[in-house]
Design goal:
The chain is an alpha/beta fold. The chain contains 9 helices and 10 strands. The model has no long low-confidence stretch (mean pLDDT about 90).
């Protein structure tokens, strides 16, 4: 599924005003986008990236770009409150994708979430792969059956989830053995990047940090594998 390319200053400004989910805005090095476009992009948490004019024209498929092109996500995002409410209503789980940049890993996590009956995912805007066509393909289309919410602050959003009655469990080294802990539903399972792990601000508000025991010489699991284990532990008593 291809991303939708929108080019030209006014069309992109209108897309931002309308609240369309934009992955990124590419600006030609020799172009100066209007202040309103820059303001709206900052307000919406959309990143602007300087590239060559040739790159902008390739993405747009035309030379009439006014030096700017935006890529819209192929999957619509929902408000975090909608994701949280559904998770609590179904007494289920959601996953939290915390700064995971590899779209293959994000897609694999979403696929496992859907297969095991999860409601969806909360994704950080910064330094996390957008739900693009690579993620859609890696998930085998599972994204179309999930509620995906994207937020600027995972800490703030998860605090709201907890206030609504949800539990927060981070999967990270140095915590309680996941085999010896009964994961309570409804809950959010937080998965961090393989190099940085779960963000400190999210660890601080977690109800528990859970660790997958390892016996081999390799020091860590791929985040997709770690996520699959954690999700299975969350639902195996109710499946």
């Amino acid at each position: 599924m291809e991303r939708l390319a929108v080019w030209g200053r006014n069309p992109i400004i209108e897309a931002l005003r309308a609240g369309r989910e934009i992955e990124k805005i590419y600006v030609a090095h020799d172009s100066h986008p209007p202040r309103e476009l820059i303001r709206l992009a900052k307000e919406k948490g959309v990143k602007l990236q300087k590239v060559s004019r040739q790159k902008v024209e390739e993405l747009a498929g035309t030379k009439k770009t006014q030096g700017v092109v935006a890529l819209l996500s192929p999957v619509p995002y929902v408000a975090p409150e909608e994701l949280f409410s559904e998770t609590i209503k179904r007494n289920s789980f959601l996953i939290v994708i915390d700064h995971i940049t590899d779209p293959q890993n994000v897609g694999n996590l979403l696929r496992t979430c859907e297969v095991l009956g999860g409601v969806g995912a909360l994704i950080s805007r910064e330094k996390t792969s957008p739900v693009n066509q690579t993620v859609v393909k890696a998930s085998s289309g599972a994204v179309f059956h999930l509620k995906i919410a994207k937020v600027s602050s995972l800490h703030r959003a998860l605090r709201e989830f907890r206030d609504m009655g949800g539990w927060i469990f981070s999967v990270e080294k140095g915590g309680r053995d996941i085999r010896e802990f009964e994961i309570v539903l409804p809950c959010a399972l937080v998965l961090g990047s393989e190099d940085r792990g779960v963000s400190r601000s999210v660890l601080d508000i977690s109800d528990e940090v859970l660790t997958i025991p390892m016996r081999g010489k390799t020091t860590s699991l791929n985040v997709g594998s770690a996520g699959a284990i954690a999700m299975w532990e969350a639902v195996r008593r109710v499946l």
